[in-house]
Amino acid sequence: MKSYFPIKKTNKLSKQMLIQPMFVDQRIKSSKKIKGLGENYSWPQSTILKAVEKDLKKGLRNFLFFIVPKEKQKLPEDFSFHYEVIRSLKTQFKKDLTLLIDTCLCSITPDGHCGISHNKKINLPETHYALGLAANTYLEAGADIIAPSDMMKDTTKYLRKIFNENNFNAAQIMSYSTKFKSGFYGPFREAANSTPKGYDRSSYQLPVNDRSKAIQSSIINAAQGANYLMVKPGITSIDLIQEIKAETLLPTGAYQVSGEFASLKLLDSQGLGKYRDLLMESLNVFSRAKADYIITYGARDIVSHL
Ligand code: PBG
Question: Quick one: which atom of ligand 1 is closest to the CA of 150?
Fold first, then answer.
């Protein structure tokens, strides 16, 4: 099976390892800057192809899409907007584009949680069922990699099972396998319309102070059939990457999340640092820590420098 992000042999930063997040939002008619994230916008469906084309010309290839539908759904089952977006991207750009789709329910559920909940408690079977419908739809539309970020127990296992049942045996899963509950997700949640209401995400995201739980979470996802693992936020997980790789022998990447990235931009805007230098420095550290790929909102700003 083709590996889009193989285990790296050197610590050198390269453009092949960069993944650019992208937001498509059904609620908007023209592009909208995302607060704190520099040249990152939410795009309406009508201009997303143009935006991607521009990035491809810069030398980017890998994109992680967050698709935000207009309507919230209590029991999510309609992923037709997602389907249309993915289909049009793959029809237009084919293999020039490696298309990763963030697979979660937080932009759809009325309470902004990553699963379906009743009385502040996640219902796991309902959640898995909806995630499975979503992921199947994305694969049918042409997604290259399914990236479940919900962090519910056994999601990777469930997805692998239904992919096998639906003749998607070769489907690739990038699991957000070690994902902490974090204060660094702020700018993202505005763009994804996914700020949690009623209770926080600590029942399904990891506590930052428990190293063995954090490593175990990636090991479990590897055993359940993930092809790629991830630590997130990058800055609070740098020390975990090597051990996860040693335990699982799987490629493991780092997600420089919205709040981390925004902090670089803020330093720059206050005249306290230079954005491009700060970005390079932080990405080189992920690389030194042996991240095999890096998801960063700054990918388009540095790709031509690599
Ligand atoms: C949730 C999800 C989150 C991010 C990616 N997927 C936020 C969360 O868990 O609340 C954060 C990414 C970022 O901050 O850049 N599905």
Answer: 16
